[in-house]
Design brief:
The protein has helices at about 5-15, 45-55, 110-120, 135-140, 150-155, 200-220, 240-245, 275-290, and strands spanning about 15-20, 35-40, 60-65, 70, 75-85, 90-95, 100-105, 120-125, 145, 150, 155-160, 165-170, 175, 180, 190-200, 225, 250-255, 255-260, 265-270, 300-305. By secondary structure, it is of the alpha+beta class. It has 3 domains: about 5-85, Uridine Diphospho-n-acetylenolpyruvylglucosamine Reductase, domain 2 (2-Layer Sandwich); about 90-220, Uridine Diphospho-n-acetylenolpyruvylglucosamine Reductase, domain 3 (2-Layer Sandwich); about 225-305, Uridine Diphospho-n-acetylenolpyruvylglucosamine Reductase, domain 1 (Alpha-Beta Complex). The strands form 6 sheets. Strands 6, 7, 8, 11, 12 and 15 form a 6-stranded antiparallel beta sheet that branches. Strands 1-2-5-3 form a 4-stranded mixed beta sheet, with helices on one face. Strands 16-19-18-17 form a 4-stranded antiparallel beta sheet. The longest helix has 19 residues, at about 275-290.
Length: about 300
C-alpha cells in the first residue's frame, strides 16, 4: 500500500483509521499480525465511499464485527480490515399486517438484540443469548444454538455491493448452509438484518434468556480468550464430545490449549501466536480423522498471511 493511497484513506476516514495495526489487539482470540489498514466507517455513506476507493485501487478488504470466530495469521492482512462497530443501530417495529420485527445494523451485538427484544416482551431471538458476536458476523456464520439458527429468525437482509449499491434481500432469495451464509454477490457487505419476532410473555422470555446464559457460563471457558467454537458438528455429532472422547482436552501447543471445560474451544493461555492455534487445529483434525474417520471442518474463519 503506497503512501498516496494511505493519504487518500486518511482524508476519507479522518481519525477513524489505523495503519499497520496489530490485529491481536482486536481479535477475541488475541492473535494476529498487522493489517495494512484498519478502518471504522462512521455511517453507510462513508462505507460506500471506502468500498468505492478500494475497488478502484483493487485493494482487498474484509468486514468484521465483534472479531469473534476469526483467526488472523501472524503475517497479518495485506489490505483493509473494515470494522463495523459504529454501525450499530437497532429498532423494533410492527408492519401494517401486525407482525413484529427487529432491524439491526451489522455492527450491533447480538446481546443488544437479545436485551432489546426481551425488554419489549418479544420472543424469537433467545437462542442468541450469550453468543459473543455481531449481527453481520452471526449472519455470515449462520450462528446457532439450542436447535435454532440465524436463518430461522431472519426475514430480510440489507447488503451493500462492492460498487456501493444497497439492496434488500428477502429471506427466500438467500442461501444458507450449516454455519455458513453464501453471499449473493462477491465483495458485498452486510449493512443490516431484519428479524421476525412474536409477542411473548416478558417474564418467560427473560427467564429463558437467563437460563441459556447460565448454561453457557457453566459449559464454556469464558475466563480465557478464544474464538468461540472451533469446529462444526459433523453429522449431528458434537465436535466437543468427539474431542473429549479421544482424550484431547488439555492438549497444548505453544500458547494455546484445548479447553478442559469444553473440547470445542481452543483458548489462549497467555502469549499465543496464530500458528499455535492453527497447528493445534491441524493436530486435532488429524487425530479425529485417524481414529474416527471423520474430517472436522472448522467453523472459525482464517484470513491473512503466514510469516
Amino acid at each position: 500500500m503506497n503512501e498516496a493511497l494511505r493519504e487518500e484513506l486518511q482524508r476519507l476516514m479522518g481519525g477513524d483509521i489505523l495503519f499497520d495495526e496489530p490485529l491481536s489487539r482486536h481479535t477475541s482470540m488475541g492473535v494476529g499480525g498487522a493489517a495494512q489498514a484498519l478502518a471504522f466507517p462512521g455511517n453507510r455513506e462513508q462505507l460506500r465511499d471506502l468500498l468505492s476507493l478500494l475497488g478502484r485501487q483493487n485493494i482487498p478488504y474484509v468486514p468484521v464485527g465483534n472479531w469473534t470466530n476469526l483467526i488472523v495469521r501472524d503475517g497479518g492482512f495485506r489490505g483493509v480490515i473494515i470494522g463495523l462497530k459504529h454501525l450499530h443501530d437497532c429498532k423494533l417495529f410492527r408492519d401494517p399486517a401486525g407482525e413484529y420485527f427487529l432491524q439491526a445494523d451489522a455492527g450491533a451485538s447480538l446481546s443488544a438484540l437479545v436485551n432489546l427484544s426481551a425488554a419489549a416482551g418479544m420472543t424469537g431471538l433467545e437462542f442468541c443469548a450469550g453468543i459473543p458476536g455481531s449481527v453481520g458476523g452471526a449472519v455470515i456464520m449462520n450462528a446457532g444454538a439450542y436447535g435454532r439458527e440465524i436463518k430461522d429468525a431472519l426475514a430480510e437482509l440489507m447488503l451493500m455491493d462492492a460498487r456501493g449499491k444497497v439492496r434488500n434481500w428477502p429471506h427466500g432469495q438467500l442461501q444458507f448452509e450449516y454455519r455458513r451464509f453464501i453471499l449473493p454477490e462477491k465483495g458485498a457487505v452486510i449493512l443490516a438484518a431484519t428479524f421476525r419476532l412474536s409477542r411473548g410473555d416478558k417474564e418467560m422470555v427473560r427467564e429463558g434468556i437467563a437460563a441459556i446464559r447460565s448454561m453457557r457460563k457453566e459449559k464454556h471457558p469464558l475466563e480465557y480468550r478464544s474464538a468461540g467454537s472451533v469446529f462444526k458438528n459433523p453429522q449431528g455429532q458434537p465436535a466437543g464430545k468427539i474431542i473429549d472422547e479421544l482424550g484431547l482436552k488439555g492438549l497444548r501447543i505453544g500458547g494455546v490449549k484445548v479447553s478442559e471445560k469444553h473440547g470445542n474451544f481452543i483458548v489462549n493461555t497467555g502469549e499465543a501466536k496464530a500458528r499455535d492455534v492453527l497447528d493445534l487445529i491441524r493436530n486435532i483434525q488429524e487425530k479425529v480423522l485417524r481414529e474416527r474417520g471423520i474430517h472436522l471442518e472448522t467453523e472459525v474463519i482464517t484470513i491473512g498471511e503466514e510469516l
